[in-house]
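By way of example, what follows is a protein record of this kind.
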Amino acid sequence: MAATPSSLSEPHIVSLGCRLNLAESETIRTLLGDSDTVVVNSCAVTNEAVKQTRQAIRRVRRERPQAQLVVTGCAAQIDPDSFSAMPEVDRVIGNADKLLPGAWHSDDARIVRDVMTIEDTAPHLAASFSAHAKAFVEVQNGCDHRCTFCAIPFGRGNSRSVPAGAVIDRIATLVDAGHREVVLTGVDLTSYGADLPGAPTLGALVERILRHVPTLPRLRLSSLDSIEIDDRLFALLTQEPRVMPHVHLSLQAGDDMILKRMKRRHSRREAVGIVERLKAARPEIAIGADIIAGFPTEDAAMAANTLALIDDCDIVHAHIFPYSPREGTPAARMPQLPRETIKARAAALRSAGARRRRLWLETLIGTRQRVLVERSGARGHGEGYAEVHFDRLPQHDGIADISITHVQGEYLVGEPA
């Protein structure tokens, strides 16, 4: 979540949820210019995310009572009436319009169009990410799949991609502004290009970026659908040194029956298999995954299969989501588990993920890590996305060599090499 600015007359953006929202928040910041405006860029991935959105709205209204307060993002797109009804909110802008200048220069209290009618992506106007060493570039938006638990397609619309030329120009601008790492983001990133002429793949896009922006040192990919990692993308993930050894997979569960009821397109065997292949080809690859705890109908044996996935896939960046029913989704009509059971299974998954992460971090003691130094200094992230802290700021051009001395909590500690 973004920090409160020092000046109460400057625009302030609270960005909740995914990296795509963070990327879009920077574009919104550019569109706002100098204005006394607060924007809450909302998330709707779970009921808890919607709750956090409402809490953020109330908090920023207390902090900025005179500012115009605008709510946008997925939660606002899916349920604009409820946010318009909040006394703290002045305006609601949907996802289809939040990157368009006209929406921010309008006086309309609500601008929310049908996202299912949107066929292209909005222009990317942010020149840099002033508070971050890395920059996030949206290359895809929306989703054509309909997982039974997910409401995001109703907030983002159908899949659509940004042409490669526009992506390359955007990344070149960010590198010129001093960014040393770029993260490609999207709602369903591995579906990139299916809607473009010639149907280029995500792998083809990555190849073009590396070729046409040779001064970009580090390229990272956000969440990937494991079943859509083709040979071209696999080769880049495992053989290209400028593509970071960090693969975050949308796995969701580790039991075949639950995967089927989720309407996922991969099996447990396929998920474990792709990780085994990735690790065999590039052993330093760090695996992350999204996993849902307590999906409807999940029994103890099914939950055990998902719990075992933490070790079977060597998941060191585990993102655990307790299941919560989203209105209008098929899973919300399935037999639900008690909340206590869901919480207990989520806790077990988080514990297993923390244990696996600790074991991984300990293997990095004594190594030298290439760390992208955050602009605040004294910390950053290695190539496998391990957080690294250091007491003495090294000489660096944005990326520093750090010798790892020990593990503290959930991060590494080191000193300039």
Observations:
- The chain is about 35% helix and 20% strand.
- Residues 1-7 have pLDDT under 50 and may be disordered.
- Residues 339-363 form the longest helix (25 residues).
